[in-house]
Amino acid sequence: MSASTSASARAPLFTAVLVGGSIILLINFALRASFGVFQIPIAQEFDWPRAEFSLAIAIQNLAWGIGQPIFGALAERWGDRWSVIIGAFLYSAGLILTSYASDPLTMQLLEVMVGFGIAGTGFGVILAVIGRAASDENRSLALGIGTAAGSAGQVFGAPLAEVLLLHYPWQSVFVIFGVIVLACLFFLPLLSGGKPASRSELEESMGAVLRRAFTDPSYLMIFAGFFSCGYQLAFITAHFPAMVTEMCGPIAPGGMLSGIGITTTSTLGAAAISLIGLANIAGSIFAGWLGKRYSKKYLLAGIYTLRTIAAAAFILMPITPGSVIVFSLVMGALWLATVPLTSGLVAYIYGLRYMGTLYGFVFLSHQLGSFLGVWLGGKMYDIYGDYTLVWWVGVGVGAFSALIHLPVREAPARLAAA
């Protein structure tokens, strides 16, 4: 065993970078995952069609995607901390200003600011920091733990919004969330000690790496495949609480759910988002663990296949409180399990130097899917009165992603000659 291999094997999994990055992702996703809870209160106050607030969330997701490679490049040129600082202030200001919006266009424009703020404090930047700081042996699992931290935020984000809405108007809740997001700044000192890039990686410019990636069929397949992940996750985050509220059968009085305080389908809808996040804590960590032992592309194809089956089975059966819980747990186990595998695959093929930028562009595809899922969900709801047809679109794009990952060439790309 070489000295470098021995050092890698002895390197600790839990580092200050992993802890600090995980807490920032937890805060980021706790707030982001709550937006679906605001669908009905905002529509009722302003008497807007469902598509209006859906478009605001869709624009937020699109801005997040556009901002991700920008913040990834900013972090790699000027430092990760600057990316988080700018992102946190944009996120906070966007939320607070949104609380003053009273027409759809203003709200939709302000969500551009929120989306860029999420990009600066989210996966693209933080997972790159975690990936560079981790040893080769621990990288996949560390990325899984960081992803799971985002899910931990999702566990309490939607229920927290639901509880606050019982006592405050939605505008006040947005202001409260705008203050909470600034807590990210307290954990900046932990984001240091990253692993330096290799000499060959430093010799290749960002432009050369991007040109090489975008002419590589494998990168383009990864880019296209992440689209369906964004479509499914954003649609469920934005619309599943409302879908459960309106389409789920009644909760039995005196049953298990009513015994723990879930007495309405509205409460069940918020709890479903929390259950998804809870199940995904285990799912993301397990996916990260599997990623260092088995082919990442085949794991991704398997995850998308299972998502497709779960989504088809859910919509084909009557929607009941029991089926909502089962679906939430199954989908939750697969929810962000794609993230450590996709980011790890990009790092494995193209190296660590520009991981943030390269993963940022892949994440842009994810957010294009998010935009379509959220906007199409609201638009088709207004046309057809329910979410059935747009749900089936999600089933189709999931099957597409399962297939397109199979031809990916999972091997380190050759660096350009110096």
Description of the structure:
With 418 residues, the protein is mainly α. Helices cover 77% and strands 0% of the residues. It starts with a helix and ends in a 14-residue tail after the last helix. The model is unreliable at 1-9 (pLDDT under 50).
What is the helix tally?
A: 19
Radius of gyration over C-alpha positions, nearest whole angstrom = 21 Å
Shape: globular
Work out the strand percent.
under 5%
Task: Please give a handful of descriptors for the protein shown.
mainly alpha; 418 residues; 77% helix; globular; 0% strand
What's this model, at a glance?
The protein contains 19 helices and no strands. The chain has 418 residues and is mostly helical.
Strands, helices and their partners?
Layout: H1 3-10, H2 16-32, H3 39-46, H4 50-78, H5 80-98, H6 104-121, H7 123-133, H8 139-167, H9 170-180, H10 199-203, H11 206-214, H12 217-247, H13 256-259, H14 265-291, H15 296-316, H16 321-334, H17 338-350, H18 355-384, H19 388-404
Helix pairs in contact: 2-7, 2-8, 3-4, 4-5, 4-6, 4-18, 5-6, 5-9, 7-8, 7-18, 8-14, 8-17, 12-14, 12-18, 12-19, 14-16, 14-17, 15-16, 15-17, 15-19, 18-19
